[in-house]
């Protein structure tokens, strides 16, 4: 039978022993301590099992709480000790094989469920007790009517022995008799109490109907009423009770006495307040937490006409660095100090500050005049952060970024307001931090679509929402189509066709550019093979594909490209990769290595948007580049006639330098015949632009190339 030393059964038993030792002194049972332990053991087992079920069963916790009441552990202190015991020992003795973090969370939730079950059972038990006493009192009515000091044995026994307070008064409120429990609750002697009148016992927190119900009862218009009521004790402290008052009638049915039954709920109230406090406050800083803040914001936003709100959303700049370099405990102390300073900034009525989590705080101001107040509040907060914070002998400078949202109540919900504040805070951060910014609906809308697009990107690739358009590259000398540039588009289910400027930066930011870029390369290379197979007599058509800077540093670039070309059966010289000039400015050899490898294999590398990055022309020699793509801005300056002679000279200079370095020159953005002619005279080799064709489906190139070949 006996478990192995230190087996789970042993540890469970030890937990039950500790538990029984903790609560035994405050129970009102006739059991011995070991007998109590036997009663607690099955409860301990239930807790242990609940701790290990994947989805925590709160009913189990509530059942254990109720079982405590059944075992006569009804004193609130017994609950308090039980919770402490579960907190300190349950995971220790019953949770050695499991994720400790997870088990602690479950143990905390079990405690809440136990407290709820305990309170519920206690309330039910008291009601049952009150009912029994009322029944006994009613049975004894005849006797009570004859003699004030009722001699009916059964009534007396219940009256004196009851754990709840009982008092009797006449219809004018003069107290006639009370039991021991009631005296103990009030901390009064019987003598003191008997000279009192019920109607003296008002308290500021009396519910509005308290005294109307009383009047109705003594007039004989109601038989009983039930209330939560507070009383002052002679020492000034407050006693909270569950109060039931019943009317006692004489043999003829005439109202004669009132009987009050009261249960002391003071401790339970305190416990509830503590639980509520813990659920609504941040343990580290003591500030209200996100839950509490949401409640308050909701209330502020639901306020009536003429009421406004102002919200400051603060995020510390560079807090992660503090945490990483000085450790979490230093980080925690910094947060506590920041919390104290923020608290000092929000002292006016209608103002509050809360911690949302991590290094994010919010301050709220409400009232009719928040337009001015919220600016002042933000300025006070920035000011409060100016003085350095001293931690471990170091003086840390703290900076923060604040997003401000201000507006009339009744227009927006809390989630929307908080999101707007969050977005605005990020705007302040990306403008360099250490500042506050005011929310602006347009900026919000932009950020929200940006956010929406970013989150939709990965699924878009899986769902095949991207497609490629091709724009022909034309030889300036003979006008023949030499190839095309692949330009990616996104057919978004809501926003329609989006150009690359809308989503390429987001894809770069999230890293999706690597799989997306690979997909573009694959499609384009396959397209090139198709062209080559069908229109070989039109001269070998080539495909230009854009590469993002992130793709350049991706280790798989060379291998992926080789694989794609091989799988499609396309020669490397059919492919040209376009890299922007800015991506290569100051590039070191490591960055250039993969490009060089590709160039050695025969892939052309073009320097895209050339002329926008102010690169050192002498540098061109170092780069594994064979084509310069002159930026559209050069072409644009040739639109007016006659073209600016200086611009012409510059282009002429670039072209001759490029040619002397053995680089071909392509121009972008050719929109008119005059431009094309000018660029041809200046010596450019190929051109691209609306004059020839806008980017379009691959079939369009078939037509152009075909016309070209036959015409
Ligand atoms: P880019 O490589 O410089 O592409 C040329 C851009 O100029 C294209 O814009 C094209 O539609 C536009 N364009 C062509 N001819 C004319 C003209 O005559 N006049 C004017 N005003 N514009 C003209 P698009 O398609 O919006 O592409 C913008 C940029 O997006 C591209 O600039 C390229 O850097 C990037 N991009 C496009 N596709 C991809 C891709 O698959 N991967 C990567 N990484 N970037 C891409
Ligand atoms: Mg390009
Ligand atoms: Mg370009």
Automatic annotation (TrEMBL):
CDD domains: EAL, GGDEF, PAS. Residues 307-441 form the GGDEF domain. It comes from the Bacteria. Residues 450-709 form the EAL domain. InterPro entries: Biofilm_reg_signaling, EAL_dom, EAL_sf, GGDEF_dom, Nucleotide_cyclase, PAC, PAS, PAS-assoc_C. Residues 151-221 form the PAS domain. Residues 225-277 form the PAC domain. Pfam families: EAL (PF00563), GGDEF (PF00990), PAS (PF00989). PROSITE patterns: EAL, GGDEF, PAC, PAS. NCBIfam families: GGDEF, sensory_box. This is EAL domain-containing protein. It comes from Streptomyces cylindrosporus.
